[in-house]
Amino acid sequence: MVYIELLNAIEERRSVHNFQPREIDSAILKEIFYYGSYAPSHYMKEPWNVKVYQCKGKNRFVENILASYRRLGMIPDDDGPKALRVAESMRSFLLQIPHHVVIHYEREEDAIRNEEEYSAVCAFIQNAQLAAWEYGVGMLWTVTPYMHDPIFLREIGLDAEKDKIVAVMQVGYPERIPQDKGRTAITEKLQFINN
Ligand SMILES: Cc1cc2nc3c(=O)[nH]c(=O)nc-3n(C[C@H](O)[C@H](O)[C@H](O)COP(=O)(O)O)c2cc1C
Q1: CB neighbours of 12 closer than 8 A, spacing ≥ 6?
Q2: CATH of residue 144
Q3: Family per UniProt (predicted)?
Q4: Residue pLDDT, tens place only, 69-96
Q5: Residue of the nearest CA to atom 4 in ligand 1?
Q6: Residue 142: CB within 6 Å of ligand 1?
Q7: Alpha carbon distances (Å) from 127 to 52, 58, 101, 148
Q8: H-run or E-run covering 99
């Protein structure tokens, strides 16, 4: 039995950079992350946690990002015209993204267990991206410097000692679907070892 729809979703899903200016219903987002949660996880730990910033909830989140960028030197740390201009441009870019979704888990002290948890969260993310595609919803998986800023984590209610952010997904209905970049022939990366 070949599930053509599943295979099409895997092949046709694209990372979306431009979104329509409208929110996705929370019930649909719930469905998407429900399917995400069918990802495998060792010991059934289901380590993923999800925070969805949307509507007015984006305002403080975006200010936290800008404050982090200032600490990290990506925005000049003063009130000069350049700093204000850069901050305003980043603010309006970030605010027009309909949903920012922070995906995080609690670190394990043991390195192997930690790797298992991290891997399971990545599987969760890809499941959610594929489910989203079925609902006509686009996502962009981002890994950004502020995810490593302990003050940023504290400001969004996490503890950098305990919690790790794996990704911040930008989510919305696609305004434009990027072209398929294709993939390297898998035969270049695939070895069968028979004896
Ligand atoms: C761990 C991870 C981090 C990524 N971070 C970014 C990012 O910060 N910015 C971005 O534009 N795309 C990011 N991407 C998306 C990739 O650029 C994208 O998946 C790749 O170009 C292939 O395009 P496709 O997803 O449309 O097939 C990330 C993807 C992964 C898996």
Answers
A1: 133, 180
A2: 3.40.109.10
A3: Belongs to the nitroreductase family.
A4: 999 999 998 889 999 999 999 999 999 9
A5: 142
A6: yes
A7: 17, 24, 15, 24
A8: strand 99-106
How many angstroms from the chain centroid is the CA of residue 104?
A: 10
Within a domain: 81: no
Q: Is 15 in the pocket of ligand 1 (CB under 6 A)?
A: yes
Number of domains, the chain: 1
For a pocket test of ligand 1, which of 127, 140, 176, 179 has the largest count of ligand atoms closer than 8 A to its C-beta? Answer: 140
pLDDT of residue 3: 81
Q: Is 10 in the pocket of ligand 1 (CB under 6 A)?
A: no
Q: How far apart are CA 9 and CA 2, in angstroms?
A: 13
Q: With H, G, I as helix, E, B as strand and everything else as coil, classify residue 142.
A: strand
Q: Which atom of ligand 1 is nearest to the CA of 14?
A: 26
With a CB cutoff of 8 Å and minimum separation 6, the contacts of 51 are 101, 102, 104, 156
**Which ligand 1 atom minimizes the distance to the CA of 125?**
31
Q: What tens digit of pLDDT does each residue of 7-36 get?
A: 999 999 999 999 999 999 999 999 999 999
Q: Which helix (H) or strand (E) holds 152?
A: helix 150-155
139 located within any domain: yes
Query: How many Å is the Cα radius of gyration of the chain?
Result: 19
* pLDDT above 90 for 2: no
SS3 content of the chain, % helix, strand, coil (to 5): 45, 20, 35
